[in-house]
Design goal:
The chain has six helices and four strands. The chain is an alpha+beta fold. It has two domains: 87 residues, Homing Intron 3 (I-Ppo) Encoded Endonuclease, Chain A (Alpha-Beta Complex); 45 residues, no CATH class. The protein has a two-stranded antiparallel ribbon. β1 and β2 form a beta hairpin. The longest helix is centred in the C-terminal third of the chain and has 12 residues.
Length: 149
């Protein structure tokens, strides 16, 4: 992994793909009747087929970048190690609403705590919020969303 962090890729700018982007910022394109993430398509067009189970990862951490000099092939374990090395792991940097997987907002979290503290059942609150009862328990105990006052 050492060659990933030598910074040589920084000598060229990101090349941004245009078009539809999903919630995580990855562009999606159609090519030969198949849907592709743009960075995977860029790799395929320049270097050929991508083996099954192999990811096309970004050195630049820019999901819409299609500069193949900024991309590398890796396993899911390699991608996780890259993420952790760069300090992008979910636990430390994408709290609450910043986490793209979050269904809730800070206002809803406050309301959940308020409703449970006022005696409403956790299962009733969970149903109305569209989350599990366990999630409500973790919110109320501040195991989740601890940063929300």
């Amino acid at each position: 992994m050492g060659q990933l962090y030598d910074g040589s890729w920084r000598k060229t700018p990101c090349i941004e793909a245009h078009g539809y982007r999903n919630k995580q910022g990855y562009c999606v394109k159609r090519y030969n009747g198949k849907r592709w993430f743009s960075h995977r398509l860029a790799w395929y067009l320049e270097f050929g087929p991508i083996p099954d189970g192999v990811l096309v990862c970004h050195k630049c951490d820019n999901p819409s970048c299609i500069n193949t000099g900024h991309l590398f092939l890796g396993s899911p374990k390699d991608n996780t190690a890259d993420r952790d090395y760069k300090g992008r792991h979910k636990c430390g940097h994408q709290k609450g609403e910043e986490n793209s997987s979050s269904k809730l907002t800070e206002d809803v979290v406050r309301l959940i705590r308020e409703r449970v503290n006022n005696g409403e059942s956790k299962s009733s609150v969970a149903r109305s919020a569209g989350i599990s009862c366990g999630h409500v328990c973790r919110i109320v105990s501040r195991e989740n969303w601890a940063h929300v006052p």
